[in-house]
Design a protein that fits this description.
Elements: H1 6-14, H2 18-29, H3 33-45, H4 49-65, H5 72-93, H6 96-112, H7 121-138, H8 143-155
Helix pairs in contact: 4-5, 4-6, 5-6, 6-7, 6-8, 7-8
């Protein structure tokens, strides 16, 4: 089966009743955990972006506490998994401010992490790439926010 375009889906959704839309959303939520997480964000958390960011930060904290510190190999795997999850939450929000908030928080946690990430080239490069990503994204924000986040970025 070939998937149709987003435009065709949008047009078809206009022809459905609210009950049919609800049934489609519920059916969609059964297939993947990410679909259910996105629906949860859209229905319950999108109205209060600040509390959403705080909840994601708490989850990042919990993930950092669970990192296996036996070797840099395991640390690298865990840090990449945390970054993958962080990016997933950023995708749900699609808000530039939220994206920069969470990436800065992730980099701050990496910087404070012990053993130091400076002891491993791969971890150091991961950190540097994230700083570069933040710098790129910073240009799309309002000037006042650029200044505020620029100060935080200098701390990193």
């Amino acid at each position: 089966m070939k998937a149709v375009t987003v435009k065709e889906i949008s047009h078809e959704l206009l022809n459905l009743t609210p009950k049919e839309l609800r049934d489609i959303c519920l059916r969609l939520s059964r297939f993947k955990k990410e679909n259910k997480e996105l629906l949860t964000y859209l229905l319950f958390e999108s109205s209060d972006e600040a509390s959403y960011v705080e909840s994601v930060k708490k989850e990042i904290d919990q993930q950092f506490e669970k990192i296996n510190k036996k070797s840099y190999y395991f640390i690298k795997k865990c840090l990449r998994r945390i970054l993958f999850n962080t990016r997933k939450y950023i995708r749900y929000s699609q808000n530039k401010k939220t994206e920069i908030d969470l990436l800065i928080y992730y980099c701050l946690k990496m910087k404070e992490f012990t053993p130091s990430i400076q002891g491993n080239a791969a971890l150091r490069n991961l950190y540097i790439r994230q700083i570069g990503t933040i710098r790129e994204k910073l240009g799309s924000l309002h000037e006042d926010l650029q200044y505020d986040y620029g100060l935080e970025l200098k701390r990193l």
